[in-house]
Design goal:
The complex is a heterodimer of chains A (911) and B (422). Chain A is an alpha/beta fold and 911 residues long. Among the domains of chain A are: 96 residues, Ubiquitin-like (UB roll), CATH 3.10.20.740; 190 residues, Rossmann fold, CATH 3.40.50.740; 193 residues, Dimethylsulfoxide Reductase, domain 2 (3-Layer(aba) Sandwich), CATH 3.40.228; 96 residues, Barwin-like endoglucanases, CATH 2.40.40. Helix content of chain A is 29%, strand content 17%. Chain A contains 30 helices and 36 strands. Chain A has a seven-stranded mixed sheet, sandwiched between helices. In chain A, strands 32-34-33-36-31-35 form a six-stranded mixed sheet. Chain A has a five-stranded mixed sheet with strand order 2-1-5-3-4. In chain A, α10 runs parallel beside α25 and α22 packs parallel to α23. The longest helix of chain A is centred in the middle third of the chain and has 17 residues. Chain B has 422 residues and is an alpha/beta fold. Chain B has a four-stranded parallel sheet with strand order 3-2-1-4, with helices on both faces. A four-stranded mixed sheet of chain B has the order 6-5-8-7, with helices on one face. The longest helix of chain B is centred in the last third of the chain and has 18 residues. Chain B starts with 21 loop residues before the first helix and ends in an 11-residue tail after the last helix. Classes of the chains: A alpha/beta (911), B alpha/beta (422). Chains A and B meet through β4, α3 and α16 of A and α13, α14 and α15 of B.
Chain lengths: 911, 422
């Protein structure tokens, strides 16, 4: 561990850091702009200047020279000064230089109050404007509904363009012009194309790029009430901090977790929260009697639910069924399972997908496979992706993989040249376009293709066959799988060699292709690598925030539950946070509801959003979802993470588990639910550690959700009630809904927002870390449930599927994924919804030509045995012949059990 | 009489300004240096260049042989290795490389070929200032001739014409520009010899520098060192611009004095007196008439408080406004800042606006101190590259030598040289 000397005092620091990182990690208030913990140093802003002394004598003689701390390695014995008057003055003059053209618009700037430029200006002491000339000005651009552009505020730190192009791989954004009028934006107005553009909001140290959704209902950071939450919009479990005021969520910020999302979210995760304010929200309980709908008071609703719950208990067993949900918490699914009984608890998941979900859960449970965290994905040095369009299905993982593919060139090119990895541009210039081995076998093009060593486009079965061929190549086993997948032999050899040569190989697959063979093939590859002495990681991408949790909890397949109603074995159903029309073919869902109705049966639905199932419910209850409720989710990594509500409780909204508990006469308590769950499902026991219990007090206090500068505390509700109401209490969290609370750093799972004296911007995440880029002090949030077990056997990996054969006039209809639109909740948001594609069916141009179809034609896509729908035709050249794609999230076909054979025909012109 | 042994760069240039074609170049002993190099081991070539004391003619004066010797050699070296010729002659007042490329392009090509052999480079680029269209035409012709005659054997030679920006002349900004990126300077270290063009080992040399190499190989190190009057070997193309009788360019022994060079330019035009001069392009500090005896070489000019730079001086007379001249230069530097580091993009713009205001009669008390503060802002280690420190040199020295003029601009609220013929 190097010892460094700062202003005459000695410190031990971690090896491999630069001086800025070392100083920040030691708690020095050293200002910076262009350096970013995830992006390293480029030396542009010159803000982090320090004095560097040759030796002790030089330091004593007050010699030394000015250097940039971010560009200088924290090597053993180095002597520096942070407080030297010359460098202090220099740092103030840098801010003065940046402020020449910066508008004095803090009071009307969205960044005000969480602005790094404000913090740094205060830190350096610059406070008087000496520049008397005109400021340079720019024309702003329309960058889409997510991000606002205000270029006059730019201080030319280059963070945005480095992030967008170099880190996130975007192309439609650049720096234009020179001198003091460099423009950062697009070549022309238009929606930013990169799926991670939203991070510009936090990357930009000032108010050039701000959250356009926050602008719709703007509130200062200090006036928001925050909470530790988890993103509900995919299965990766990124940690978030939603901020709320006056009962509405206003914005979502990144919540640092070194093992998961680090500093960045995807745009679905950041902006998807707007669904909470959607007109489709269920805000009041409602009953439907004889076709007439009526709103219910919370008390009346609870009374009806209590009646239903009593019915569940009183009836002969089996008369009620429960349908759980992969987007509901562990506690909500568990509460329903407890109510109806495990035998009558069904997974609200499309049957074919459920088979894959449970298979993955079984594989992970067995312990042979190592499921990596996103942090580990980012450090892998070779990867094979089977069937997942990661940027659309597990976006944050795609961003991690993009960084991972720098690992090998950094090691092989930069290390011998002694270029530190944090010396970002020097490293990038040395590496140039080199990437580590990344192999993508998918059915359509992906947004990682640009860094792939090799891409293959094939039907799902053929992707699986490639996977099997890789396993065969690793097994040196040409006679079994090798012969049946002979078409992939050359490709497989290339992949096998790269995986074998890697230090940390990774295989990624998942359920989005709906292909069992891909999952088995990934397993076969992992098993073969293990035999060859490697320690591969396998990432199984699952679709929803608690898919793995539901699969680990266990539930019967949905069709069996629907059959119980069909055959008259059940006459009541409680559906938690689910729309059956997305989980079963539309006509079956419809029949299910009709049968319930016919038999005088009952349908109780608890959900946040309205949909066809909710509309059919006899009793509909407003459920609190992730952001406005509390509970636990299990990410696809197998990490259990607790989320706590940002919103104060209201009688008209409660978690599904809370409604169900209350209906049984219990006092709902999250910790009780967790305790029961862990008692009944012992393998979930570690989940208890996902966050401290509600009884925790730090120095006798809870942790405050509101900032200490929160305004209007005594008057915020004055329009409703003049007297200051008693602050609401959260029985489920050691968090208060007020400004009062523990002021120091709480455990990671309880950090509602990051703030540190002098650090109001997102850079306030840094003082919470053990050292820069390390876990938060006290450890990152969440607990891993499924660790690899030494010596455990790889579950049998099956046989390759037969080769895909196109069929004349028919197509294998598959789902194509879109970050915006393929996930139900975020798709209801105003901005994200506006970016979702309209329904379509995509064909290979050759297929379309044979069928006499052209781009834009109205066609009917009809899976065999299912209803057909009219949609416009899109041509997608990379789609394999014989395969048709429809967008996932297209409600009409979500439950159709794709992939499924069917037809695409010209829609007859209207008679 | 000028000959190959006294004026190796220019002795046989056609007086009509046309290009010295291959035959004529050969007749004057051309490509003998390369022939000698081909008979010499690569490392020995570099040793000769080192021993010759040849220092970079682009302005910084870095020892050329030392630069070459940094490149990794042998089978383990990362390849391809590159040579990039800095022909982006954008320094105000500098036009020496233009002469060489327009009239003696084969001399440059021979220098490149010797360098390619010395460092085992597979690829060479000439990065040419975009406005030098005549040089481009003639270089293309020379490349075609040289290729046909086998003088570029062992490496490939490309001419790249720049889209134009002062920053492209900074060696690493040039590498970025060649790669199709913004011409921002690169982090150093690593130096281009380790990680240069496309991340590979690269030699970046100025045109005039490489033109000195053939003679060293053909006539030997001792001859070369004997050419100069001082420790810095060889000859130098010295230029004079400004209101002198005969502005122009001369090949003279390294270390010829400022006064001798001015004499060759015929002295000042009638009625004008020498006030000061920038010895080596715009980004050097002013010298004054007291410096006429200073030898124009790297160390002597430095001792006098300036830099030899490109060796092409810009002369200021007593009827031109020193503030106006400084304002003009600062405006150029401010405009050409690449926008990368704050002291440069922000500070230069500020200094520019102050100087323009002074010239308009809108100077304020405190402006001079502000300019001094800003030049301090561009001090050692403060900026990312040498552009702003280079801009500070004429500005700071102008304030030092012509402070009274700056003060008059402020006190009189006008330029006292109003009506001077710029």
């Amino acid at each position: 561990m190097p010892k460094i000397h700062i202003d005459g005092r000695s410190y031990d620091v971690a090896p491999g850091q630069n001086l800025l990182e070392a100083c920040l990690g030691l708690g020095f208030h050293l200002p910076f702009f262009c350096w970013h913990p995830a992006m390293g140093s480029v030396g542009a802003c010159r803000q982090c200047a320090i004095k560097h002394f040759k030796d002790e004598a030089d330091a004593k003689a007050n010699g030394g020279r000015l250097v940039m701390s971010c560009m200088t390695a924290a090597e053993e014995g180095i002597r520096i000064s942070v407080d030297d008057p010359q460098v202090v003055a220099f740092r103030a003059s840098i801010i003065e230089g940046m402020m020449l053209h910066h508008p004095h618009d803090c009071p009307v700037c969205d960044e005000g109050g969480h602005c790094h430029l404000q913090d740094m200006t205060v830190m350096t002491g610059h406070n008087y404007r000496r520049y008397r000339f005109s400021k340079r000005t720019f024309r702003n651009q329309y960058l889409g509904p997510l991000i606002n552009h205000e270029m006059n505020r730019c201080i030319q730190c280059y963070r945005c363009v480095r992030y967008y192009r170099e880190y996130a791989g975007g192309a439609d954004f650049n720096a234009f012009g020179i001198s003091d009028h460099v423009f950062f934006g697009r070549e022309r107005d238009g929606v930013l194309e990169n799926e991670f553009a939203g991070n510009l909001v936090e990357v930009c140290p000032t108010g050039v790029f701000t959250d356009a959704t926050l602008k719709q209902h703007y509130t200062r950071k200090w006036d928001l009430r925050w909470t530790p939450s988890v993103c509900p919009h995919c299965a990766l479990g990124c940690n978030t901090s939603p901020g709320e005021r006056y009962g509405t969520v206003r914005a979502v910020f990144n919540r640092y977790n070194s093992a998961v999302n680090g500093y960045f979210l995807c745009d679905r995760g950041r902006f998807g929260y707007e669904y909470l304010s959607s007109p489709e929200r269920v805000t009041l309980a409602r009953q439907r009697r004889d076709g007439v709908r009526a709103d219910l008071t919370p008390e009346a609703a609870l009374a009806q639910l209590t009646q239903a719950a009593a019915g569940v208990a009183a009836d002969p067993p089996g008369r009620w069924i429960g349908i759980g949900s992969p987007r509901a918490s562990m506690e909500s699914n568990f509460a329903l399972r407890q109510l109806v009984g495990a035998e009558r608890f069904f997974a609200g998941v499309e049957a074919h997908e459920w088979e894959l979900d449970t298979r993955i859960a079984a594989i992970l449970r067995q312990g042979a496979v190592h499921s990596p965290s996103l942090g580990e994905v980012e450090r892998c040095d070779a990867a094979l992706v089977l069937g997942e369009d990661l940027t659309q299905t597990a976006a944050r993982m795609a961003l991690s993989l993009r960084q991972a593919m720098r690992q090998q060139p950094l090691r092989e090119i930069c290390d011998p040249l002694k270029i530190p990895h944090w010396l970002d541009h020097a490293a990038r210039e040395a590496i140039q376009g080199e990437h580590g081995p990344l192999f993508l076998a998918t059915t359509a093009a992906t947004k990682l293709d640009d860094i792939a060593t090799h891409t293959w486009r094939a039907a799902p079965d053929d992707v699986a066959r490639l996977g099997y061929a890789v396993a065969a190549a690793l097994n040196l086993d040409q006679d079994t799988a090798g012969t049946v997948t002979a078409e992939w032999r050359a490709a497989a050899a290339e992949v096998a060699d790269a995986l074998l040569a890697a230090e940390r190989p990774l295989i990624v697959t998942g359920v989005s292709s709906g292909n069992r063979g891909q999952i088995e093939a990934a397993l076969a590859i992992a098993a073969a690598l293990a035999v060859r002495g490697k320690h591969p990681a396998v990432s199984f991408v699952l679709p929803e925030c608690n898919t793995l949790g539901l699969a680990l909890l266990g539930a019967r397949p949905l069709p069996e539950g629907m059959d119980m109603v069909r055959f008259g074995l059940a006459h009541g159903a409680i559906v938690v946070e689910n729309d059956l029309f997305r989980r079963a073919p539309a006509e079956e869902a419809k029949a299910f509801l009709a049968q319930l109705d016919q038999h005088g049966g009952h349908l109780v639905v608890l959900d946040q959003i309205r949909h066809a199932t909710a509309d059919a419910a006899e009793l509909l209850l407003p459920a609190a979802g992730v952001t406005e409720g509390s509970g636990t989710l299990i990410s696809s990594e197998g990490r259990a993470q607790r989320f706590f509500t940002v919103a104060a409780p209201t009688p008209n909204r409660a978690e599904s588990w809370s409604w169900l508990e209350a209906a049984q006469g219990h006092t709902p308590a999250l910790d009780d639910m967790v305790a029961q769950l862990c008692a009944l499902v012992p393998e979930l026991e570690p989940l208890r550690q996902a966050a401290p219990p509600a009884t925790l007090r730090l120095a006798g206090q809870k942790v405050a959700r509101e900032t200490h500068r929160f305004s209007g505390r005594t008057s915020i509700d004055a329009a409703i009630e003049v007297s200051e109401p008693k602050p609401p209490v959260d029985p489920d969290a050691p968090l208060s809904f007020t400004m009062e609370g523990y002021a120091a750093q709480p455990p990671a799972a309880l950090i509602p927002y990051f703030w540190s004296p002098g650090w109001n911007s997102p850079q306030a995440q840094l003082p919470y870390q053990q050292r820069i880029n390390a876990p938060l002090r006290g450890g990152d949030a969440g607990v891993r449930l499924l660790e690899q077990v030494a010596g455990s056997q790889f579950p049998c990996a099956g046989e390759p599927p037969p080769r895909f054969e196109p069929k004349a006039g028919r197509w294998l209809i598959i789902r194509l994924y879109h970050l915006f639109g393929s996930e139900v909740l975020s798709g209801l948001g105003r901005a994200v919804g506006s970016l979702a594609p309209d329904a379509y069916v995509a064909l290979n141009p050759a297929d379309a030509e044979r069928a006499g179809l052209k781009e834009g034609d109205a066609v009917r896509v009809e899976p065999d045995g299912r209803r057909g729908y009219q949609v416009p035709l899109r041509l997608l050249p990379e789609l394999p012949v014989g395969v048709a794609g429809v967008p996932a999230g297209f409600a009409a076909l979500d439950g159709a059990g794709l992939p499924h054979w069917g037809t695409v025909t010209a829609e007859a012109p209207h008679a | 009489m000028a000959d190959a042994l006294t004026h190796p760069l220019t002795f046989n240039l056609p007086p009509d300004g046309s290009m010295l074609a291959l035959d004529a170049y050969r007749a004057g002993g051309g490509y003998q240096g390369l022939e000698a190099a081909r008979a010499t081991a690569p490392a020995a070539i570099t040793e000769q260049v080192k021993a010759s004391n040849l220092r970079g003619r682009g302005g910084a004066g870095f020892p050329t042989g030392l630069k070459w010797s940094v490149l990794p050699m042998g089978p383990s070296a990362r390849r391809p290795k590159y040579i990039v010729v800095n022909a982006d002659e954008m320094e105000p007042g500098t036009f020496k490389d233009r002469l060489l490329m327009e009239q003696n392009p084969h001399l440059l090509l021979e220098g490149i070929a010797i360098c390619a052999r010395a460092v085992e480079a597979e690829m060479a680029y000439i990065f040419l200032r975009g406005e030098y269209t005549l040089a481009a035409t003639r270089l293309r012709q020379a490349i075609t001739e040289a290729e046909a005659a086998g003088w570029t054997e062992g490496f490939r030679l490309h001419l790249h014409t720049s889209a134009g920006r002062y920053m492209c002349g900074e060696e690493t900004g040039m590498l970025n520009a060649l790669e199709g990126k913004r011409a921002n300077p690169r982090t150093k270290p690593p130096y281009p010899g380790i990680s240069g063009l496309w991340g590979k080992p690269t030699v970046v040399n100025n045109v005039e520098t490489l033109c000195n190499v053939p003679g060293i190989l053909a006539h030997g190190v001792d001859w070369y060192r004997g050419l100069g009057r001082t420790a810095d070997g060889g000859t130098k193309l010295y230029g004079v611009s400004g209101r002198v009788q005969h502005p122009g360019l001369w090949e003279l022994p390294m270390g010829t004095t400022v006064g001798e060079i001015l004499d060759l330019a015929g002295g000042m035009r009638p009625g004008l007196k020498l006030r000061g001069l920038l010895p080596g392009g715009a980004s050097t500090e002013f010298l004054t008439p007291e410096h006429l005896n200073v030898a124009m070489d790297f160390s002597a000019v430095q001792k006098a408080g300036s830099r030899m730079g490109t060796g092409t001086m810009i002369v200021l007379d007593d009827q031109a406004c020193p503030v106006g001249m400084t304002a003009n230069l600062t405006h150029f530097f401010a405009r050409e800042s690449c926008g990368w580091c704050t002291p440069c993009w922000s500070g230069l713009g500020w200094a520019d606006r102050i100087l323009q205001a002074m010239e308009r009669g809108e100077g304020n008390p405190g402006n001079i101190e502000k300019l001094e503060f800003l030049t301090g802002f561009w001090g050692p280690g403060a900026t990312f590259c040498a552009l702003a420190p280079g801009a500070a040199e004429p500005l700071l020295s102008a304030v030092k030598y012509f402070r009274a003029d700056f003060e008059r601009h402020i006190v009189e609220h006008r330029c006292p040289y109003e009506g001077w013929d710029a």
